[in-house]
Amino acid sequence: MSVETEIKQRLSDGLELIEYRLENESHMHSGDRMDTHFKLVAVSSAFEGKRLVQRHQMIYGLLSDLMQNPIHALAMHLHTPAEWQESQGFVPASPNCMGGSKADKH
Amino acid sequence: MSVVDTIKEQIENNTILLYMKGTPRFPQCGFSSRASEALVACGERFAFVNILEAPEIRAELPKYANWPTFPQLWVNGELVGGCDIICEMAESGELKELVSAAAKQQDSEEA
């Protein structure tokens, strides 16, 4: 199973997703592997009443064994349905790589 | 001292603390760069740890924090979040509020 499929399956099993977008941004980064950097947009009422740090931890919890290897970075934009409507679907761009992991084993 | 004790001590002794790749002047990752820029823009003094030069902290902190990646911003002994959260909070003005309040509290404790 590809990393993308695996992420999608786990998140849709774990959360009731109203909106789901996963972008592979691995090409923006150093290294040969093409499944290391992702950007996730997820909208779910499961995020209601949760602080941002807790929402991210929910996602990290569902993906824990994939983090570090193969996933090196996961940008997340997690919203409740009301926030999503208010933001009108705006998602900031991820930063470009600065080569920090070139000397890295990961 | 164990690595976890070192981490606890760092978090306890530094009201505003950023764990990052590289330094604010020479960040070595786009996410760390954005996070430190947002923090610098708040105009308060903050501590940082370059985890590329601290492999033990880099290995242990994700488990301790229940947060697998860097950067990580800690304020008043609590994990605030990584790059996305820091930038979202910077955008909304919440970051400056949080950081200024923490710095003010620290000053009054030191005085």
Automatic annotation (TrEMBL), chain A:
Do you know which Gene3D superfamilies this protein is assigned to? BolA-like
Q: Which GO terms describe its biological process?
A: cell division
This chain belongs to the protein called: Cell division protein BolA
Q: Does the keyword Cell division apply?
A: yes
**Taxonomically, what lineage is the organism?**
Bacteria, Pseudomonadati, Pseudomonadota, Gammaproteobacteria, Oceanospirillales
Q: What Pfam families does this protein map onto?
A: BolA
The yes or no answer to whether the keyword Cell cycle is present is yes
Q: Which InterPro entries match?
A: BolA, BolA-like_sf, BolA/IbaG_stress_morph_reg
User: This protein's superkingdom?
Assistant: Bacteria
> Member of which family?
Belongs to the BolA/IbaG family.
List where this protein forms a coiled coil. Answer: none
Q: Which UniProt keywords apply?
A: Cell cycle, Cell division
TrEMBL record, chain B:
Which amino acids does the record list as binding glutathione? K21, R58, F70, C83, D84
Stated name of the protein: Glutaredoxin
Compartments it resides in:
Cytoplasm
Family as reported in the entry's similarity comment: Belongs to the glutaredoxin family. Monothiol subfamily.
GO cellular component terms given for this protein: cytoplasm
Which CDD domains does its entry note? GRX_PICOT_like
Q: What does this protein do?
A: Monothiol glutaredoxin involved in the biogenesis of iron-sulfur clusters.
Domain Glutaredoxin: residue ranges: 16-80
Per the record, the major location class is: cytoplasm
Q: Which InterPro entries match?
A: Glutaredoxin (IPR002109), GRX_PICOT-like (IPR033658), Monothiol_GRX (IPR014434), Monothiol_GRX-rel (IPR004480), Thioredoxin-like_sf (IPR036249)
Classification via NCBIfam families: Grx4 family monothiol glutaredoxin (TIGR00365)
Q: Which GO terms describe its molecular function?
A: 2 iron, 2 sulfur cluster binding; disulfide oxidoreductase activity; metal ion binding
One Pfam family assigned to this protein is Glutaredoxin
Q: Where does [2Fe-2S] cluster bind?
A: C29
Keyword terms, alphabetized? 2Fe-2S, Cytoplasm, Iron, Iron-sulfur, Metal-binding, Redox-active center
How it assembles, according to the record, is:
Homodimer.
SUPFAM superfamilies listed in its UniProt record? Thioredoxin-like
